[in-house]
Amino acid sequence: MMIGAGITRREDDRLLTGHGRYLDDLDIPDALAAAFLRSPHAHARINGMDLSAARSAPGVVAVYSGADLMEIQKPLAPKVLHPDLVDFPRLPMPPSEVHYVGEPVAIVIAENRYLAEDALELIDVDYEILPAIASTAAALAPDAPMAHSGATSNVAVRLVQRSGNAEKALDEAPHRLSEEFFVMRGGGHSMEPRAVAARFEPSLGQVTIWDTTQSPHYARQQLSVIYGMAEDDIRVVAPPDVGGGFGPKAQFYGEEVVVPWVAMKLGRTVKWVEDRQENFVSAMMERSQTHRIEVGFDSSGKLLALRDFVEHDQGAYCAGLQVPSITTATVPGPYRVPDIQIELVACYTNMVPTSSVRGAGRPQAVFAMERMMDRIAEYLDLDPAEVRARNLIQADEFPYRVGIMFRDGSPLTYDSGNFPALLSGALERIDYSAAREFQAQARASGRYVGIGLAVYVEGCGLGPYEGAKIRLTNRGKLLVTLAAAAQGQGYETVYAQIAADATGVDMEHISVVTGDTSRIPFGQGTFASRITATCGPAVHDAGLRMRERLLDTASRILGSDAVTLSGDRVSMDGDPEKSVSLSDIARIANIGKHGITLPEGIKPGIETMSYFAPSRAAYASGAHAALVEVDPLTGGVQVLKYVIGHDCGNVINPLLVDGQVLGGFAHGIGNALYEDTAYDAQGQPQTASYLDYPLVSAVEVPPVSLFHLHTPSPLNPLGVKGAGEGGTIPAPAAIAGAIEDALRPLRARITHAPTTPARVFAAIPRES
Amino acid sequence: MKPAPFVYHAPRSLEEALSLLADLGDDAKILAGGQSLMPILNFRLTRFDHLIDINRIGDWYGAPRLDSSTVTIPTLVRQRTAERDPALASAVPIFQQALRQVAHPQIRNRGTICGSLAHADPAAELPSVVSVLDSTFTVASSRGKRTVDVADFFQFHLTTALEPDEMLTEVTVRKPPPGTVMAFHEFATRKGDFALAAVAASVTFTDGKVSACRLAAAGVAPTPQRLTAAENLVTGSSLTSSACSAAGETASGEVDPTSDIHATADHRRKLVDALVQRALGDAARQGEDL
Amino acid sequence: MSVRIAVTVNSKSYHETVDDRYTLADFLRERLRLTGTHLGCEHGVCGACTVIVDGASVRSCLMLAAQADGASVETVESLAAGGDLNPVQRAFKENHALQCGFCTSGFLMSVTAALREGPVRSADEAREVLSGNICRCTGYRGMVQAVLDVSS
Question: How far apart are CA A341 and CA A334, in angstroms?
């Protein structure tokens, strides 16, 4: 069995020797360099643009403003819509009004990037600065200026999720508590920024686009609509190596429209490689939400009602309502809550548009809910672990209907899990009672030590579908083709493991290719921890069919039904003398002999294809526990111990799953303690370099004790769920809970993520 | 993020470098380690028509020199060289203590001590380090040489006493008297980041009592700031923990930091309090071992 | 303006003419097509571009190609001499110390330079050695273990 084996990755050798094939490493001959001029203003009208100096600068081939490319100025559609959404068109390179600092307004094509950047400085834009909105609070303030000229409100949409009657239940509850929580902006920060290259082949009428996208088929579909070209004439290739995705690369951007179009216009190959300065102001971000949450509960700490009012920062445009929709569905989490009301108001602001970043709307929901579980415990003087345990959905209650809807359009239903075992496992590994004792001793000696817990659920494995194709190549190898594109997840390894088990062919004879729209017609993309649960079953099914085809063909050749497949040979009665290799099979069934009739019974063309469409999202889950020490003088936080319990169902490659969880956790530590994309009130970014926006290094990420439960999902034949985001989601909540617990003698209230030293310091009440 | 065009000069001697500086003046910038200059050039936050790369003016400028009473750090001493120089570490230990907190080895391998001093970033470690030492800056131009006392060198945020045609050729530090201990403590958001605040301390003990104390804070003013009230408070004391905490409180009262996205003025004052306590506590422990 | 330089890269000598402002990183990647050295931030923080110049690990985005005149440069492409992964590379693979791999070259060069200075004895020391580079994928555990494995 290869499924379940923690084998090392096939990708590694090339990456370790410097022979990775990232977009900017590819040999794309004669590519010109593109650079974008970006708005320095958060909100401004473009009254004119003088490109003449730039056009005559050394090495410059062409310069276009948005107004020069009106034929492609069509809206980039939001991914997840709602009938009530007030949408403002996000144009690839807006010709007349800009809505955030960093929005592209012109493109320079030059012989190299140095010269292109020189020319950018020669472009003179006449901006008329308009008032800007830089927070949801500012957006919703009475008499607020409009983030978009001509709008009558900054509200993009208001949505309500309801189960029962939360208002009534709150009124009748013996106890109720409320609080306001703030989660700040943070980015994906893949180490490789975005990049797009394009070349038009006039003889074929086809444009080839190399794109660091997580979703090549989605990009092709958007381009097909905007360009008015058939999808077959647009080939989008996500290079074999993409340096991290984490959500922002799953979105579709103006640059992806402009660069290939300009390449076609010029009849030249054009490459744009985003630099970090651009990435900070133009790659989509996430997280900024305000939650005003109220819970009703009885004296045993049992939840009776939950009401949450969520302000979501949509940024300058709506790239889709996926993130706030996920948030509203994630607030109740692993707990039984009889009456729920979650209201959402999504606002436009003059900042980079928001969309999914690893965690995607879930960390905010978990933060609000878990902080309230801590507050209930404090209020009732109960142990916070006990309050959680009393409210958890039990292992025998699945499938569990929460009563509200998920973002995939289905009633929110948890497929499987064992939340109590996750919580008790986490408590056991953090040695909970010893940790409480340690805390008491530390307090007695004037130190501030605290314990934080967070239990969460994660909707993953979303539809609509994902596909896989397996072909017996003419050289007698199996080639697995996925539409999905990898950004470090190890698809070449994982899907070879699944295909090996399904086909019975040794892994060494199986290779995997990904992310090229010309190789497989349909696909969706890598996001929402969905690929294992959608592509996995597709590969498995295609593999089973391939096995059937191989055995069938071999038995026709060998003239016996008693055939077995081993390695890359099919033999009769286990006799190696009477066997055929995959090469033999390919020669007969695929290559054939020109003009000669196939032997009887042989079906030509050995290729299988399968698409898997899940009936609804699967639910991964987990529990985190943190032991921290806080220095109230500096605001510094040290994580002394951290435990992660994780349940993503069956596991294909445990080595890689651990890597996903621990990598996600590092991002979670960033969100918990460090990463905060700040803007000033005029919408000017204040953290546009890694000097001001700290990413965690090996020193900041504490060692983790990680354990797994494997509760299979009934929603797919492999029983798998997603693993990419679980490490991230609850970390800010667990750490904030631990900090508040540590500082309880000082009555500090932790209401913000990240809890930076500045916020810890500010949270401690001081005598004036 | 490619730098704007410039003309690159690689003089082979100090004289050649100074003559270039004299000719080019404001249009030129000296490139030493480049670890502060290159990022801002890449961001195009600044530009110079000429870069004068001094890395080839001679190996002689790359090694610290010690004699019986002074330590001299010429212009091309890499931070990493200084950090790993045992003679320097024993003569003036605060260099090593502070340098280990400056960015990361990959940066210190190129970055120079004099480069950091001439850059004069108020949040950087080294300006506060030399502020607690008897240090003298040797400044050269084609007009000649002059020396500038540390008290006069740092003038404002990223601004020093250097004239456009001048270059910092070395900093000379008088070896501290016997009985002197040193400590450097900082608080940064992340390892290797610029400090939200830092405190350098040099304390001389005579017969178990503090006979001299110098404290300087980084990150709280446009230049490194000596904490003279706190210094005076502990001078003459035996640096008990109550003396340390009183000094911390006094120090926090004598700084007037500004607020930014990373820390408020109040927070920085509190950091100075905590870091002065830590630095003096550290000094007191070292004093016990004398 | 341009500068003539003579530089040894991975034991091979090159005589090239480069633009004054051309960075060492771009020289390695574009001129020599040694694309294993990556650019992640171009302001010296992420460490993806780390190479070894005259024995010291440095950021190639903060050095000019002109400054490498006369220097000996080692890049990630030099590590697997003879085509086999070296012990550091092997340890990275065995410990799943890389995912997207974009930052990996920089880590390998930083670790290589650090190990030449002496063994790394504890996990804390290993974290210190790794702290000048940023990885967004792995959470560092595999890398810490890899450094300890190689060092023991």
Answer: 16
